[in-house]
Design goal:
Elements: H1 2-17, H2 36-45, H3 65-75, H4 79-91, H5 101-107, H6 117-129, H7 138-145
Helix pairs in contact: 2-6, 4-6
Length: 156
Amino acid sequence: MKTNLIIIAILFVVLSSCNNKITSLPKNEINSTTNTEGLKLFQQNCYACHSVTTKSHDEIIAPPMAAVKRRYMKEYDSEDDFVKAVVSYASDPKTENALMIGAVDKFKVMPKQAFTKEDLTKIAAYIYDNEIETPEWFEDHLQQNHKNGQGMGKNK
């Protein structure tokens, strides 16, 4: 009974926060002048779950967007292929289509969001074209757990 209440509370927090607006610009995105609509959509719709402000890997509820970008960049060389892949997955997230198997194991599949394809395309293009802020712990986590890209997806 107690476990069920905890699970329900966690689900409530996750589901209620996924569309919260982030009002401040991440520090290394402040000077970005390209795709400002993509940046705005990214901040409003992605950072609530793919947070850059967590204190450790144990606190996160979804992989940092920098990790998502890194993994998709390993698989897709061109911007067009990258954007299509991100849009495809985010439009209809399923375990069998996930590149980040470890993330799916840890967090489960991303909940389906009510994004338009146009908005997802702007978000994905923004991610591809810009440096994405990373949590302070991210590089240490990569070095300790993903040397040479190991554990970064199904083909690596």
